[in-house]
């Protein structure tokens, strides 16, 4: 019985000791992930429907990450959101349809609004 009590004391002592601080997401993380997802979708749809445009959505994503300077976990989540946006539209479209072109237009509006909201609410 005393042996079991000693193990409990060791566990409690270990739990009470110092722990590394857990990273806390900035308040705009969800919006950044949404913007990343939109950029990934645009990256897929542009060459399909608007090859005449020269916007480099992947480059914009890289710039967004560089400016935000996220830790590795957040960087991976942002990149994952970009890839998820790309994959979502790659499953739906093989050629440019009216629906794909409309989606591209809506995504452009949504990207601009989301970026503006992040800047307005959180920029110094």
UniProtKB/TrEMBL annotation:
Q: Where does the secretion signal sit in this chain?
A: 1-23
Q: Which UniProt keywords apply?
A: Signal
The record ties this protein, via InterPro entries, to:
CHP02301 (IPR012645)
Pfam families from the xrefs?
DUF2385
User: Do you know which NCBIfam families this protein is assigned to?
Assistant: TIGR02301 family protein (TIGR02301)
This one is known as: TIGR02301 family protein
